[in-house]
UniProtKB/TrEMBL annotation:
Reactions the enzyme catalyzes: L-aspartate + 2-oxoglutarate = oxaloacetate + L-glutamate
Cofactors required: pyridoxal 5'-phosphate
Residue ranges that the Swiss-Prot or TrEMBL entry lists as coiled coil: none
Full protein name: Aminotransferase
Amino acid sequence: MAFLSDAITRIKPSPTVAMTGRAAELKAEGRDIIALSAGEPDFNTPEHIRDAAKAAIDAGQTRYTTVDGIAPLKQAICDKFARDNWLDYAPDQVSVASGGKQILFNALMATVNPGDEVIIPAPYWVSYPDIVALAGGVPVVLPCPAEDGFRLTADALRDAITPRTKWLILNSPSNPSGAAYDDTQMRALTDVLMAHPQVWVLADDIYEHLVFDGFAFATPAQVEPGLIDRTLTMNGVSKAYAMTGWRIGYGAGPRALIRAMAKLQSQSTSNPCTISQYAAIAALTGPQDYITESREAFQRRRDMVVAGLNACPGIDCATPQGAFYVYPSIAGLIGRVSAGGTKITDDEAFATALLNETGVAVVFGAAFGLSPHFRVSYAASDEALREAMSRIHRFCAGWQEP
């Protein structure tokens, strides 16, 4: 009898966590490391949110709560969806969990049966296919290359749907590419979905507020209200309010799905951190100035990083519409040899050599299902990004012919 379950053998550790951990190990050894591998704002959580958390502690709000979120937070989430997305949800249609990842995990574990297919556009966030596989489902990965703007097309979606398709996971703006769908592009997808009533939509909107150049964000159920009864609209406070460590994510959808997710959560983590829930209320209902300020900073950094990478020999970097990542191609570097003697056979070899030879940590594209690329998080200081671009340029300029 094997000790480990079949389910655990179907998944692998998160590559982004692994790269971030490796960078931390090298830094602890005294190496000069610039870590651009983690998707985490470098700004502090806004003061009024921190104050709300302290007030909750002083008020004794430190005990168990309802398993999937306190009533005031659920109401604040309903108000947010109405204000920002024109979506009408009641509090009993909302689930709050310990981060957006748990919302995704709960939804898929509560609904996916062995053999059910889940469509995942690539490049994708690294956890999507593994959570599907853990649930016994089949990840159906659809490559969305740079020439399509890293976006799923209506034709590709239509061709991928089968009688076994249960979910489409749609992340806009995207981690890792920063690609986002405008109203017209989203409408093309929702039109396909309306013709296939067995397909549910998991809309991962965690980067909703990080869009640039006047881009107008659109979520599926907002574009096509006919989908609201089979859509889970997921979001959280981590990225928009620099609250990654507070661990609050939320989702809204049909009551039967929300009840099933709460049932699962009641047997796993139970309620999310009470103090964090009160902080999240302050984030959603308090001043929103931070969002504008951080968006401006991230757009400035995006422009600097895109220009810096496109100046590197052999790298081609598209300009994303949102999030805080770029996803440049290294197709022009495959087969070359670095100054340190590493042959670049693929994007993992590139990322490994870059870290070892320059101290810049990025994540290789194969981790996100689309090569040959790598992901750079520009959620770092301007100074760190400038130095990283300089190091990457020297690294690329030092290529040898094989």
